[in-house]
Amino acid sequence: xxxxxxxxxxxxxxxxxxxxxxxxxxxxxxxxxxxxxxxxxxxxxxxxxxxxxxxxxxxxxxxxxxxxxxxxxxxxxxxxxxxxxxxxxxxxxxxxxxxxxxxxxxxxxxxxxxxxxxxxxxxxxxxxxxxxxxxxxxxx
Length: 140
Known about the structure:
Elements: H1 17-46, H2 50-74, H3 80-99, H4 106-123, H5 126-139
Helix pairs in contact: 1-2, 1-3, 1-4, 2-3, 3-4
């Protein structure tokens, strides 16, 4: 008795539109975080306040996670790095909202929180996860 195997359909090399949207939203939402990190870090170093420099380094790490995550997502290697970096940015917005810094400016809240939140949602959709898994399996 012989078994017939059907060859798997070739995996698309280009990321789905949802993955491109997730990467774009994550980067647009993380840009203000990167600016804040650079500003706080440099200002703190100017005043020789190492605690402020460390405080500025934490959002910089979140931006780097989003940047690396966007590249990894669009090359089909990982979706989780972008989602985690964007979730960290959403957490920063939540802390700012809880502290009362963003209550008076809903446009800033939408800009700072909307992009990363959309990146978390879009980047973790099954279509994106399945495409990444298929790209990994095709690579071997």
